Prior knowledge:
The structure is a homodimer. By secondary structure, the first copy, chain A, is an alpha/beta fold. Helices cover about 35% and strands about 15% of the residues of chain A. Chain A is built from 16 helices and 15 strands. A 9-stranded mixed sheet of chain A has the order 14-13-12-11-7-10-9-8-15. In chain A, helix 13 (about 365-375) crosses helix 14. Chains A and B meet through strand 8, strand 9, strand 10 and strand 12 of A and strand 8, strand 9, strand 10 and strand 12 of B.
Amino acid sequence: MKSRRDFIKTTAAAGAGFTLLPSGTLFDKDKESKLRLGFIGVGLRGQNHLELALRRNDVEVVAMCDIQQVMMDSAMELVNKSGKTKPQLIMDGPLGYKRLLENKDIDAVIIATPWEWHTAMCLDAMNAKKYVGCEVITGMTIEECWELVHTSERTGMPLMMLENVCYRRDVMAVLSMVRQNIFGELIHLQGGYQHDLLEVKFNNGTQPYGGGVEFGEKGFSEARWRTQHSVNRNGDLYPTHGIGPLAMMTNINRGNRFTQLVSYATKSRGLHNYIVKKGGENHPNAKVNFKLGDIVTTMIHTASEETILLQHDTNLPRPYSIGFRVQGTNGIWMDVNKSIYIDGQSKEAHRWEEAQAWFDRYDHPLWKKYGSDAAGAGHGGMDWFVLNAFIESAKRKIAPPQDVYDAVTWSAITPLSESSIQMGGASVEFPDFTKGQWMYRKNNFAIGDDY
Amino acid sequence: MKSRRDFIKTTAAAGAGFTLLPSGTLFDKDKESKLRLGFIGVGLRGQNHLELALRRNDVEVVAMCDIQQVMMDSAMELVNKSGKTKPQLIMDGPLGYKRLLENKDIDAVIIATPWEWHTAMCLDAMNAKKYVGCEVITGMTIEECWELVHTSERTGMPLMMLENVCYRRDVMAVLSMVRQNIFGELIHLQGGYQHDLLEVKFNNGTQPYGGGVEFGEKGFSEARWRTQHSVNRNGDLYPTHGIGPLAMMTNINRGNRFTQLVSYATKSRGLHNYIVKKGGENHPNAKVNFKLGDIVTTMIHTASEETILLQHDTNLPRPYSIGFRVQGTNGIWMDVNKSIYIDGQSKEAHRWEEAQAWFDRYDHPLWKKYGSDAAGAGHGGMDWFVLNAFIESAKRKIAPPQDVYDAVTWSAITPLSESSIQMGGASVEFPDFTKGQWMYRKNNFAIGDDY
């Protein structure tokens, strides 16, 4: 086996530079047809993936671990409903996942745990020679990001961050339009996470959404851990849903890269106000100081001189919106008004058109082929596609379409935005996790209708 | 007459801190009823104001100057059509305006000339003891901004920048909603100037819009001068339409102020592409290097810890949009999808509502009273209101509702954004043109139905 650097050089020259791994080195050939999966974390998000995995004939769920009985029970209900064989169940505290990784019958793992556990679990999984699919946010510090890259390179094991919005039907149609040059040369893009999470960050300890203003040990599901990040951190805490699709459109890590970033944060009002409104000013949580500004705006500059704007807005009452905008020399798509304008093609000069007709016309081959399989899967079907991409890549023993460089590049926005804000709005340089290979790698994300 | 500082202290204490001028010191009392106006620049924009001024019985157009016969002819046509007395006409080259300022019968002047002439003309007019209304962009450098402030303070003569978007009907309804706390405490705002100016920046030298790719000496109207700024400068060249209304909503210079700013610019493609597309690659202008990035994004931080986002986007084919967003702890307005969401008041949780019903309900008293007078005036009626505010303030000998501090604070965004971009995306401090008085001044913009 060649060294990684040799391999990248060879494959880049051959025009297939996205592949990290020499094929055929991952698993035994005779096990190719069925992927043996382990689940680290079967909370509500893990259960989404589990349910989709159980639907498939090419996946065997070999083991599951969690730290909460209630989650394990719900997960087992899904297994029972599916009629599949009962997996190995591991409940052995926060480090129980290490026992799961010792299971030699597991080819690949899905990690769906609190953010602060992702890096440790990914590292351990790669070191245990598992193909890794991890929920979003892989690396909470730049050092963690580098460690993930180095470990993936050293072990030869891929890490795919399960960023699902790259597979949203309208987003993929726009990706097709970008690739067919409908927008011309890209100039400016926007995205973000504008989602009122008040009933996610707080609940009554028994239901996942709302009903109370508890979090941490007294909370349930995400409120148990996610809210604490709003207490301690000020930055764009959740950048990947916005940046993933935009990074693929602008060929980040594949001919382009992020060069620098700057973030500004507003005051913090929403979380405190909500506690007082729903729990009264004497509720103990009314004394908590939340560090997270209600809205964090981030500008990114790229090597190709595009700008990308990200908005993180999770503490205020508002309608949901990723807030996509894709603008080039020929035209523009905006998400919030569901509209597109293409110079010379739109019916009236300078007038928005309904975007849907464009989406229908440029529907991505993957959605044409698998749209009915994806129907009923989470988040409008995109959960089906992201899991499918992971499973198909793992079965074929190739690098996933969203690889470790993407995982850490997208996740690194959070610590970089925290630094920028802490330094009073200084622009900070973006690390090049590919170590120069971004100049040679090709964009093979969703180029066909395979996965 | 008290010194300015004493005066401001007194009036601030009396809750009328917006007034720069002791009343009754500007003009002779017996001329109060009719304002005697001079026009410096009667190009297309000057003619808009002229036409509205000629409609009024409380205005006498005393003199007009310009450097182009064609513009003077058009202006005289408007005068003739109105049946009003022929004003003094001055055509004496670029400095002819100084002769106009010598006319002692002129109380106030309207300046509508290229940006680079605004500061010199405003300074000369204030020194000549004229009440000054100047078209947008007053001060192209920070030094010019300061000189305008110092000269206004020294001479006691007000400068109103004629920023019309502050008077847009929907914008004023939102201002009313802000003041009635419908949005709660403001958190984040957006605006800008997203307007395809390709046919403004280039024309055939005889028509104002399009028909060719000429600019500078071979261009007509704005193409004669405005385009050159895109050759030489990279920044948010036109911030006032977006920031004016947002500044009034956030009480800038009246309890709040801009503290810092950062801008990122994209590559420059649109202007060159347009020249090649319409004029061919052998047209001499195809060799021009335009410094202005196609999209310039600026983030501003305020003393009250709001963030304001501005977008300057004038080189690409796109639908027009100022791109307003006003978001507080209770809800949000967005311009591009014409929608509002107010927590607990909107019909469905987390669902946008058509904004129009809200605009109708919170229609500003000024629009209720003068909507029919404004009908037919430029830019949907808002031109009527901004001129009316200038004329009524001048007649009453009081500080205008948008004063010199506003004029330079809004205009200063351009040179600050140029600096920020030149320094590679550094945040730059925002000057406090009020010298601390922002802490005490009150927001009296459009508080009643007078002007």
